[in-house]
Amino acid sequence: MTQPVVELLGVFPCCASAASAVRSIRNEQLGELVVYSPTPDHGLDTALDAPVSSVRLFVLIGGLLGCATGFAFPIYTVLEWPLITGGKALISIPPFVVIAFELTILLGALGGMAGFLWLSKLPRITGESAPDKRFTNDMTGITVTCSPEQIESVRTCFERTGASEIRELP
Amino acid sequence: MTLAKINDDILNTLRPPSATYYAAVLLAVSALSLGLAAFLHQARTGLGVAGYEHPILWGIYITDFVFWVGIAHSGTLISAVLFLFRARWRTAVARASEAMTVFAVATAGLFPIIHIGRPWFFYWLIPYPNERELWVNFRSPLIWDVFAITTYLTVSAMFLYLGLMPDIAAARDKITDWRRPIYRLLSFGWLGSNKQWRHYTALYGFFAALATPLVISVHSVVSWDFAMSILPGWHSTIFAPYFVAGAIFSGLAMVITLLVPMRRLFKLEPYITVHHFENLAKLMLATSLIVGYAYLTEFFIAWYSGSPFEQGTFFDRMFGQYWGYSWMMFTCNVILPLLLFWKTVRTSLKALFVMSIFVNIGMWLERYVIIVTSLSHDFDPANWGGIYQPTWVEAAITVGSFGMFFTLFLLFIKNFPAVSITEMKEAVGHSPKTETSEIV
User: Fold this and answer.
1) Confidence (pTM)
2) Do A130 and B196 touch (CB under 8 A)?
3) Given an 8 Å threshold on Cβ–Cβ distance, is A116 in contact with B158?
4) Four-point Cα dihedral B109, B163, B258, B8, nearest 10
5) Which CATH architecture has domain B3-438?
């Protein structure tokens, strides 16, 4: 049988106080938290001890794939369909470098975009906003998913760190 | 300056437009319609309606192509290169510049298609399995162009969209009119959660890192369309850096041309300050000096080469039948920008606006001069007499390209935040005492 859980939302007027709340909640191991903010914030990242994004792997894989394709595709096709121009060698590496370079960038960027969307769980078909519309405006929010016994501790933690509003989410 | 005020001020630019805005759109759409009509006339009648005559078989369309690709470049400089250099002042002008990049590349991409005579076969340039018994030549700079421009358009569009995503979400959560469902769709369901921001900032940095070498490669490839030939006036090793510097120079001028009226129209004075324009002017001055140095180097190398054909082409360029274009180009691109050494000029928006128009004209003429004078003075003296006379069709299509560019830009700035809300908030931070004028 699964444990009943509740979700508590704290609204903060600035990222610094939200970062303090994050640190407290993590130190006291009060539950799973998600932070919503109108901008990226290094203080929050540090408080969350967030790992480095894996987007870089997608960019790397896309870039390598693009580079390999950029060489392999022209080489394969010039051998399949020989078209000798200006007495140049069929496999002319310098001109193919241009194709390989462009495809490295193109597939690297496409790979990065695909990775970003996948890791960020986007697009979300419903297109609904965060728990509060102010989180894309000027407020920072923290939702904590915890057990009913922990809810008071979370509320106290929110109050102590300067939350302007605290409410339980349905 | 608070985050809420930034949010409100920038989203206020999406409010129903003024009569001035409608007048600008009407003008741009009229120009676009004229270009479209001329293009349809050319498509029905044939490429003969353009003023091409042997040996000048590249004319205004290729001039327009190089011009518009060049315009795109400063957008990437501002959005990607200055981002990597952590130049904070770029924040206010980056979004408009990025949008300009995408629309300029899209406009540029049409010209090779318009130029090929049978535009409905443009897809033959794309290498894919087919039964035509034709295949592209990967050793040709024209095919490199296809790869470079396609990559540039795709990456620039994704870069623009990535930056827009949180701002569209802010619009979705604020705007209540008929556009809300569209913003909801286009925001991809952006939440602004810590996880999303972490991947977002990582990808934004990678896009900047990828776009920086890309922008240099694109205009280098465009310059090799000319430099890989053996034609005097084109066959030059300095063409790649010369074209890249010229591209950024012309693009900066276009950024100023667009931002001065946009700032006034949308009352963005607190966000786009005179300081931003001064920085743009400094960059314009630096690139103008590089362009001027490249012009002089070309002449020196032509003289130093000892080749009578090379010397003849450059002498003809300045004193032959196209002398007027060349001197006007030199005046607009090298002489006039020297005024930017004076701070009073750099900080006067009227002066900058006028100068940006002259630089736009000068840089268009530069491409015209490079293409037409070189073709008109090849190795065969029998060819040297003719003058390329552009027809009304070419002129109308050129006007149409400006119409298309300005229409897209005007529609963009009225429907999407023209200044990055996220970056502006990030720059101001969460300290309400910070003023936007401090973002320099």
Assistant:
1) 0.94
2) no
3) no
4) 150
5) Up-down Bundle (1.20)
